[in-house]
């Protein structure tokens, strides 16, 4: 197994959590989400992001609002729903537990 494959799978596993963390801070346009993820060294393409946003919306974790743009057509801004905020809280607990487990094993 190549290390790149493992790294890719780890990133995919964290992508949903990272998107929800970004949207917890403020509503965002898909291109803005991609840019912030790239800044954090989590490279994502539109072909990966849009299906994930759609799934999260269908699961009632996200909603969106159309906002008029001065540079073209209206933009769809995503934000967490109340259910999304609750789910994010559960993910934060899981992340903390996982991080503690890995740190415990790594430091033995």
TrEMBL record:
Domain of life: Bacteria
UniProt-listed InterPro entries: Metal_resp_DNA-bind_regulator, Tscrpt_reg_PadR_N, WH-like_DNA-bd_sf, WH_DNA-bd_sf
Every Transcription regulator PadR N-terminal domain range: 19-89
One protein family per Pfam: PadR
Protein name, UniProt field: PadR family transcriptional regulator
Protein source organism: Bacteroides acidifaciens
């Amino acid at each position: 197994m190549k290390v790149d494959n493992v790294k890719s799978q780890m990133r995919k596993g964290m992508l949903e959590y990272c998107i929800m963390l970004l949207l917890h801070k403020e509503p965002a346009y898909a291109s803005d989400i991609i840019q912030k993820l790239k800044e954090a060294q989590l490279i994502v393409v539109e072909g990966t992001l849009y299906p994930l946003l759609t799934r999260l919306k269908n699961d009632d974790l996200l909603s969106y609002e159309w906002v008029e743009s001065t540079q073209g057509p209206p933009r769809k801004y995503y934000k967490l729903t109340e259910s999304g905020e609750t789910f994010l809280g559960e993910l934060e607990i899981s992340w903390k537990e996982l991080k503690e487990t890995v740190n415990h094993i790594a430091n033995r």
